[in-house]
Amino acid sequence: MANKNNIGPRRLVVGAHYGVKDWLAQRVTAIVMAVFTVVLLVSFLTGQNFTYEGWAGLFARQWFKLFALVTFLGLFYHAWVGIRDIWMDYIKSAGLRLILMLATIFWLIACAAWTVQILWSV
C-alpha cells in the first residue's frame, strides 16, 4: 500500500513556486532604488543651481535618464509584487482578486508610460 502521508521529505509541494524569485527581485529593486536615491541626493546637495534649469540639466544627461528609468521600472515591479501579494493574501474571491490584479497592472503600466514621457521630454 502506497504511503499517503503528506508529512516529511516526501510531502507533496504545490503552489505557484515564484516566492524566491519575487523575494530576490524585491531586494534587488530596493537596492537599485536606494542607490538612485543616494546619487540623487549627492547630485542635489553638491549642486548650486536649485532651479528648474538645474534639475533639467541633471536629467538631460543620458546616463541619468537611463538610471532613473531603470529605477522607476524597478519601483513599478517592486510595487507589483507587493500589491499582488496583498491581493492574493487578503482577497478570497477569485473574481474580485482578478479584477484588482488587472486594475493594478493597468495602473502600473500607465505609470510606466507616463514616466517614460516625463523623462524623455526633458
TrEMBL record:
Cofactor: heme
Coiled-coil blocks: none
Keywords for the protein's UniProt record, in alphabetical order: Cell inner membrane, Cell membrane, Electron transport, Heme, Iron, Membrane, Metal-binding, Transmembrane, Transmembrane helix, Transport, Tricarboxylic acid cycle
TM helices/strands, residue ranges: 28-46, 66-83, 95-120
InterPro entries linked to this entry: SQR/QFR_C/D, Succ_DH_anchor, SuccDH_FuR_B_TM-su
Keyword field contains Protein biosynthesis: no
Protein name according to UniProt: Succinate dehydrogenase hydrophobic membrane anchor subunit
Source organism of this protein record: Massilia hydrophila
